[in-house]
Protein: Exocyst complex component
Organism: Chinchilla lanigera
Amino acid sequence: SVYDDQPNAHKKFMEKLDGCIRNHDKEIEKMCNFHHQGFVDAITELLKVRTDAEKLKVQVTDTNQRFQDAGKEMIIQTEDIIRCRIQQRNITTVVEKLQLCLPVLEMYSKLREQMSAKRYYSALKTMEQLEKVYFPRVSQYRFCQLMIENLPKLREDIKEISMSDLKDFLESIRKHSDKIGETAMKQAQQQKIFSVALQKQNNVKFGKNMYINNDRIPEERKEIVLKHVLEEEDENEEEVLSVQDLVDFSPVYRCLHIYSVLGDEETFENYYRKQRKKQARLVLQPQSSMHETVDGYRRYFTQIVGFFVVEDHILHVTQGLVTRAYTDELWNMALSKIIAVLRAHSSYCTDPDLVLELKNLIVIFADTLQGYGFPVNRLFDLLFEIRDQYNEILLKKWAGVFRDIFEEDNYSPIPAISEEEYKIVISKFPFQDPDLEKQSFPKKFPMSQSVPHIYIQVKEFIYASLKFSESLHRSSTEIDDMLRKSTNLLLTRTLSSCLLNLIKKPHIGLTELVQIIINTTHLEQACKYLEDFITNITNISQETVHTTRLYGLSTFKDARHAAEGEIYTKLNQKIDEFVQLADYDWTLSEPDGRASGYLMDLINFLRSIFQVFTHLPGKVAQTACMSACQHLSTSLMQMLLDSELKQISMGAVQQFNLDVIQCELFASSEPVPGFQGDTLQLAFIDLRQLLDLFMVWDWSTYLADYGQPASKYLRVNPNTALTLLEKMKDTSKKNNIFAQFRKNDRDKQKLIETVVKQLRSLVNGMSQHT
């Protein structure tokens, strides 16, 4: 209220304050007055005690001095005791602290020893114990801080060292992959050989009844082979090492454990897989000359096998470093590359032995990896492709073999002077002829030397094809089908082509062609023995529904038809050669009275040739004889109608008629048996009717009966008659210059001109009608 805005507020406050002070002064004065007597009494009492207090002070001072003098020695001893107690307490504290620090120092010393001994996994475990157990106890000390600061550096050192060891390991397995793969493939091969040997011992007939010269391989040979296989396996058993013996996997284990402890396992896994993928690409990259030798393929396969054997080992002994999905992905990538490489490089192979060795390597390669759980079906599919290529190479090789056989053959029946020689031929070729067996020595087989050689080579081809079919994990039915199909290719393509080429060769004469036809007949009959041969190998009956038949029947029949056609062609060519020797004097006035020399030589040649044809089938010989006569008739007719021949005299026609008569006599002598009646003579009917027409000069009958079925000159064509008559007309003009002075010659000339006009009219009428 002092600071209120009331007037005189401050003054009133001061007045009230003064009044209050006066009241307090009065109360104080009252109180002092009340206690004054007591204060006076107290002062009086103190004055009385003063004397006694001085006496007491003197006594206390004297007593204190005596005590001080008496306690000096005790104080000194007490201070010594205190000092000893402090030292003792400090020593106890130091011992306690040292006891707390010593395990830490010991563990750290152990850590350094482990690092020096390269026991990095144990060192990491020690670090973990230090951090979790020991360092928290002594964290206040400076040396502990230094240790704590040093541990990350040690961990990095361990990571770097372990990674370096891993790199050395990866480089080591890269170098030893081929050795690892070779060992794994050797183990797989030994196991397979043992299984096959047991299978053969158990009377499985795959390859059991192998025929060479119709003789079976003795059963004792199988036992010897099995014994040899077992002995060889026992010898090599001690030499075969496992993958652990060849490679030290401890760096991988250590590195994996170290990164697991460090919590960086994913980084290690990614690095390992990345590096192994790089190595896989290097392993899968083939050398450019790999296809040249089997060692190139073997090195390629062993490296791949070694790679995946290591991966399979890592898969089973580590947890998570590689997974089945990872190995499957890696294998699928590798398998695609392997198939592409093998397709490319195998296409360059032209040696069947090299392809066969490649097939064996692929089978061992596939069996080895299949034993480690990798799918290999695509490799066996590839083997089917290579099998087709192998068959093509075999076909090319056997084409050369067949060509050599045909080149070396003399195309003469095989002679057998003694029974021993006879049995040698029979052992090579399944020939049966009771009539030949009854004959006395010396005797001859109907076929030539090439037949048994070809038969043997076909069997050798089947053996060669069988070698590839083995170990493909296929049934006997499938193998039987493969053998029959490849044999069919050999017969229908290779042998057929060689036969056709042989038949077309210019140096092959009629005698050789006849022998070729005989040979193909016997080869065709031998096809059933080849089917039995395949059946004995595969033990698959020919009556099985899906059994493929051999196409030898059609193959040899086609070759025989080609040979027959070539016989007809060459026979006609030979006839043409003789006909070209003809040297007629077309202006001859009188005939010589005997046939031309070239024609008699031709007929003698045909007689000798048709003697050879007696070994041919009847229809072939008859067809060849009829073809020859028809061709001879056509050639003689063309000789008369040759455009370059301008004139023919009647004497020349008469001489020509003598030659035709000889041809007819030849035809009637039945040079080849089997013709009915005068069938062969009909080949010369056109010539005969034409010559008869000119010889008897029966033009009125010809012109009157032309076109009638019963006409005597039914086979004479008006064009032919007109051409020949015009040539005779020109001759009459040139040789009878003075014919107009002789009435008979004039009449004959007029008759010729009249007949010519009528024939032209007839020919023109035929043209208009046509």
